[in-house]
Amino acid sequence: MPFKNKEKAKDYSKKWRAENIESIKARRKIYFQENKKACYERHKNWIENNKEHVNDYYKKWSRKNMLNAKKNKSCVLCGYKEFPQILEFHHLDPKEKLRCVKPAKSGMLKEEMDKCDLLCPNCHALFHYKERTKQ
Q1: Number of domains forming the structure of the chain
Q2: pTM, whole model, 2 decimals?
Q3: Is position 108 within any domain?
Q4: Which residues contact 103 (CB under 8 A, 6 or more apart)?
Q5: Residue 114 domain flag
Q6: Which is it for the CA torsion 109, 114, 116, 118, positive or negative?
Q7: E strands within the chain?
Q8: Greater pLDDT, 103 or 124
Q9: Rg of the chain on CA atoms, in Å
């Protein structure tokens, strides 16, 4: 039954979806199972056509995760914790380093952060200076 008032139509649609969420999920699941290849192809094309949007999403996601990882933490060497967002990730074993820990599209960000200690910029620079001058 068509509604003349768009707001009523919108409200009715919302209410109907809320009442029938399980049947909607079941139908979507069946559709996906029957059309898996087409769904993957459509998703792949969407990502290809929206690279900027996808990259922005992953950067925001990884930046948020990095800030959460630094929250309520302090520098391992000097204990600095006034502004945790400036703390830097320092790889404990440089041989295990796969990539720099910075906001970017990557599913490996969490694993890479787990291999690191948090250091304030001063301690991090001093650590690498001492490391270079030893050799």
Answers
A1: 1
A2: 0.51
A3: yes
A4: 59, 60, 62, 63, 66
A5: yes
A6: positive
A7: 88-91, 116-119
A8: 124
A9: 24
Q: Do 5 and 12 meet the contact criterion of CB atoms below 8 Å apart?
A: no
**Interval 55-112: pLDDT, tens:** 787 777 777 777 777 888 889 999 998 888 888 888 888 777 766 666 554 556 677 7
Domain-located, residue 1:
no
Domain encompassing residue 68: 6-134
DSSP strand pairing (88-91 vs 116-119)? antiparallel
Tokens of 114: 């787990």
Label residues 3-39 b or e (16+ Cβ within 10 Å = b): eeeeeeeeeeeeeeeeeeeeeeeeeeeeeeeeeeeee
Phi, psi of 129 (to 5 degrees): -65, -50
Sequence letter at residue 86 = I
Q: Is residue 128 part of a domain?
A: yes
